[in-house]
């Protein structure tokens, strides 16, 4: 149930707000850059949301995969939210080398709410064991998929990428998942 | 249980990160402003977190209370979070008129996670009724108080302000709660 609430929070407090504006942000970005090679194909204009089954979320994608490198940030979006005037939202563009050494670019980030699940499983006062955390990650995925599939605002603007990283093999699957976009 | 997760999320994903830096942000802000009258007393250098029992969260404080007006934003904080490079966090300063018409300033915002609870109670697919939402708000408060009281990082840097707004009387208690800081 914790995960169900975190999935809804991720959707209503974030994805529902930013995904409809993503196309616009990418267009602005490409105009500003002048480099038309980056994010050239519209089918890749999606937020790639990384969901590691371990719920372990590094703050930098480079820590999980050496084939992935931060490229640039998209233009910021400012929205008045719950008393914070002009709260800033932005997404990061990454350069990914595929197995042939070809560079691709994509907008990607981890599903931040999983960081809460991970922290809760580390703090005894939170009442979440490691076994329960695993179940909660699966529930998070199910709840998130369900709400996104019903969402007109988010249709075709995202891709959920599940990372089976529970066997210490993160460096392996990562280049594959990003280059298979 | 949804509320328990949202309280932990609010703490580990936000309050624990920004509250330790709040003093610094206010100092920087006061130096830049030159106006030493604003936020002059250190005892008011806390984030006032507004928690309406209805979970109804407007995006602007002015909508809830005409005695409250946005003054300015504090300097931004940028942190690499879960793949978003230099994610921006900031807080808003408000000018509040007390019952004698005196102006006071404070850093305030609503407890953003309650917006998720409210939205969930409006969407049938989320499985949260209005009665359950009320219970969840109370659970949110208890869980948040518990985790904040144990937190070294957040000690004395916040004030939870519970708003009993379930009888359509928001314009009344608001000036009181803010001017009684
Ligand atoms: N007032 C306020 N200002 C902030 O900058 C802020 N950032 C987070 N929060 C609240 O703290 C809690 C923990 O945040 P987390 O990042 O784990 O989840 C976030 C995160 O996964 C995603 N999200 C929200 N804003 C951003 C953002 N700018 N960039 C990336 N992800 C974001 O959507 C979730 C829900 O967000 P909110 O529903 O706005 O409330 C959050 C949440 O309750 C904030 N609250």
From TrEMBL, chains A, B:
It comes from the Eukaryota. Residues 1-181 form the STING ligand-binding domain. It is found in: Cytoplasm, Perinuclear region; Cytoplasmic vesicle, Autophagosome membrane; Endoplasmic reticulum membrane; Endoplasmic reticulum-Golgi intermediate compartment membrane. Signal peptide: none annotated. Belongs to the STING family. This is Stimulator of interferon genes protein. It comes from Anguilla anguilla. The lineage of its organism: Eukaryota, Metazoa, Chordata, Craniata, Vertebrata. The chain holds residues 153 to 333 of 392 of the full protein.
């Amino acid at each position: 149930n914790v995960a169900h609430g975190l999935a809804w929070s991720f959707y209503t407090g974030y994805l529902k707000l930013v995904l409809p504006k993503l196309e616009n942000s990418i267009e602005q970005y490409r105009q500003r850059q002048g480099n038309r090679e980056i994010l050239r194909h519209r089918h890749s204009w999606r937020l790639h949301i990384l969901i590691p089954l371990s719920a372990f979320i590094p703050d930098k994608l480079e820590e999980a995969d050496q084939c992935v490198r931060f490229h640039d940030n998209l233009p910021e979006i400012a929205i008045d939210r719950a008393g914070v005037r002009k709260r800033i939202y932005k997404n990061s563009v990454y350069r990914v080398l595929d197995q042939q050494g070809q560079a691709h670019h994509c907008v990607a980030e981890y599903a931040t709410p999983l960081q809460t699940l991970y922290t809760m499983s580390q703090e005894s006062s939170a009442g979440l064991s490691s076994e329960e955390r695993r179940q909660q990650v699966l529930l998070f995925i199910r709840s998130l998929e369900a709400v996104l599939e019903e969402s007109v605002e988010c249709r075709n603007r995202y891709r959920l990428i599940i990372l089976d990283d529970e066997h210490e093999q993160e460096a392996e699957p990562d280049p594959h998942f990003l280059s298979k976009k």
